[in-house]
Amino acid sequence: MTHLTIIGAGMSPGDLTCQARTAVESADCILGAPRLTAPFLEKKPCFPGYTPGDVAKYAHVHDRIAVLLSGDVGFYSGAAKLLDAYPDAELIPGISSVTAFFAKCHLPWQEAALVSAHGKQCCPAEPVRRNAFTFFLTGGNVPELAQALTDAGFGHLKVHIGENLGAESERIFCTTPSELCSLSLSSLTVLLVENPHPDTRLRVGIADEAFVRTTVPMTKQAIRAQIASCLQPRQTDTLWDVGCGTGSVTVEMALAAHKGRVYACDVVPEAVALTRENCRKFHISNVTVKEGAAPEALMDFPAPDAVFIGGSKGNLSQIIGAALSKNPNALIVLTAIALETLTQGMAALQDAGLDVEIQQVFAAQAKSVGKLHLLMGQNPTFILTGRRTL
User: Fold this and answer.
1) Dihedrals φ, ψ of 215, to 5°?
2) What is the pLDDT of residue 203?
3) Looking at residues 299-318, what average pLDDT do you find?
4) How far apart are CA 174 and CA 183, in angstroms?
5) H helices, E strands: number in the chain
6) Residue 119's pLDDT band (boundaries 50, 70, 90)?
7) pLDDT computed for residue 42 by the predictor
C-alpha cells in the first residue's frame, strides 16, 4: 500500500522544515509544482501535479510518495482534496503565506481576518470594516478587490502588497486601495489591509441621523429594529429589499448578513443613488442595487432566504409570487401604515399559502421645546410576517 506524505513547502524550497526534508529524502518520488520540485530533480523522480488523480498515476509504481504543496497544508491548500482520497496520508505543516508575510511586515497576525479571494466571490469591505488587519489571498483579481474597497469608502487605507513571495522576483511595498486599482501585479500576490478604526458593533436600529437623507422616504429607526427582529437574518443569508428608498433597511440587512448578500431595488432613480451612497457611508460592499419596478426588476436576483417589501407600487401579490417562485420557503416581511394596505398585505400573504403574523409598532421620540421635552409620535406601523409552515 502506498504511503502518501503531504508536505507544506512554504513559499519556496528553502522554507522546508527539517521534518519535511526528512520526508522528502525518504520518498520514492516527489509530486508538486515544478518550482517546488526543481531542487530535487537530480535526487529523486519528480513529476508535476498534486491532485488525487496525479497521485494515482504513480501509486502502483512507488511505495512512498511525497506531494509538495505551497504554503501550509491547512490554509486554503490542495491537501483537503488529497485527504478525501487518501485519508491515511501523513500531513507535515509548512510556513504559510500568512505567517511569512506578516513577519516580513513586522506585524502580529493572531487577530487578523484571513480571507481567500482566489477563485471565489469576495466582498472585501466586510472583513476590512470589522478587523484591524485583513489578509487576502488573491488570484489575478487585485484591481477588482481594490476597486471594491475604494467604492466602499476604504480607498484611503494602508495596504501592504506581497508579490511573488519566496521567489527571486519577490516585491513588498505599501500603497492605498485607490492607487492599487491601476496596478498590474502577479497572480501570486497577497494583500494585507490595515484599518485603524474597525467597527465591531452589532448594528441594529441605527439612528436615523446616521443616514444620508433627502425627500426619499426612509423606514425609521424603531421600525427598522423590529423588521430586523422579524427577518432574523443569518450571516450567510441572501436577502431582498424591494422598494429600498433611502437604503436604511438595506444597510442593516447587509451588516447582519455580512457573509451573504443583499439585493435591493427601487423604481425611483434618486432612491437607488441614495441607497448606494448610504452603502458607501457604512463601508458596505455586499449589496447589489438595481433601478427598476418590481417584480420585473427581481427576475435576475438569486433565490432569497428572506425578503422585505417596503414598497410595491400596487404589485404586492406579484412581488411575493416572484420571491416564492425562487424559494418557496422564503420569509416575507412587509409594512403597512394604512388600514387598506394592511388588508391587502394580509390577503396577499394568505393567498400565497403563508401563515401571517401581525404586529403593530407605535414609536415616539422626545424633542426639546424650550425647557421641556415633548414626545412626538410617529405613524403607527403594522409589520406583517409571512412564513410557510414546514
Assistant:
1) -85, -5
2) 82
3) 94
4) 12
5) 13, 19
6) confident
7) 86
Q: Kindly give the residue spans of alpha helices, DSSP state H, lying in 215-315.
A: 221-231, 248-256, 269-281
Convert the pLDDT of each residue in 74-108 to its tens digit.
Answer: 998 899 999 999 999 999 999 999 999 999 999 99
Cβ 5 vs Cβ 27: under 8 Å: yes
Residues 24-54: tens digit of each pLDDT: 999 999 999 888 898 888 888 999 999 999 9
Confidence of residue 251 (pLDDT cuts 50, 70, 90): very high
Q: What is each CA distance from 246 to 46, 53, 179, 211, 362, in whole angstroms?
A: 61, 53, 30, 8, 21
**DSSP-derived secondary structure letter, 39:** G
Query: Which residue's entry shows cell 501509486?
Result: 59
Locate the DSSP E strands across the chain.
3-8, 29-32, 46-48, 64-69, 90-92, 113-116, 133-137, 158-163, 171-175, 189-194, 238-242, 261-266, 287-291, 306-309, 331-336, 355-361, 364-369, 372-377, 381-387
d(C-alpha 33, C-alpha 49), whole Å: 6
**Cell reading at 10:** 512554504
Distance CA 66, CA 97 (A): 21
Identity (one letter) of the amino acid at 181?
C
The residue-averaged pLDDT of 112-135 equals 91
In angstroms, how far is the first alpha carbon of the chain from the final one? 49
Neighbours of 106 (CB within 10 A): 6
